[in-house]
Design a protein that fits this description.
By secondary structure, this protein is an alpha+beta fold. The protein contains three helices and eight strands. It has helices at about 1-20, 100-105, 110-120, and strands spanning about 25-30, 35, 40-50, 55-65, 70-85, 90-100, 125-130, 135-145. A hairpin with a 5-residue loop joins strand 4 and strand 5 (about 70-85). The longest helix has 17 residues, at about 1-20. The protein is elongated and about 55 Å long. Mean pLDDT is about 85; it is low at about 5-15.
């Protein structure tokens, strides 16, 4: 009986450890992102969580702002080109800043205050996409109050 249990353990352990394909998931904070006329920048925190076991490559991370009509109005891509061994339960956090004057730089003609009056009350979307051996994305609303 002990030999049978030992054999089951020896053969099932690799399946449990290595049979789970590695994957990643994203979380964006704050959710939603809120801007006001006086608050023109917002610090964004992206949490990348791993599950399963194995190697995952990350080629790039894209941050895209999408307007109410579904049009991409701003995209920033960061090339990563790295591989990492994924272990379930480990989370990596990255931060970046969204700056309204950078996002809307081509549309601000007569000062920021006049421009903000045009977008106040609208709801846009922030989409973060991680591309590589595993591609995943997350979205949150951007509110202009």
């Amino acid at each position: 009986m002990k030999k049978l249990l030992l054999l089951l353990l020896v053969f099932s352990l690799p399946i449990v450890l290595f049979g789970c394909s590695p994957s990643i998931s994203l979380d964006i904070e704050p959710d939603p992102v809120v801007f006001t006329e006086d608050n023109r920048t917002e610090d964004i925190e992206i949490s990348i969580a791993g599950s399963g076991f194995g190697e995952v490559s990350i080629d790039s991370i894209d941050a895209t702002v999408i307007d109410e009509e579904g049009e991409s109005i701003f995209t920033e891509e960061v090339e990563i080109g790295e591989s990492a061994f994924i272990i379930s339960g480990i989370t990596v956090t990255e931060e970046f800043t969204l700056d309204l004057e950078e996002i809307f730089e081509d549309e601000i003609d007569n000062g920021f205050e006049d421009f903000y009056d045009k977008i106040e009350g609208q709801e846009y979307t922030l989409k973060i996409k991680v591309s590589g051996s595993e591609t995943t994305s997350a979205e949150t609303d951007i509110l202009f109050e």
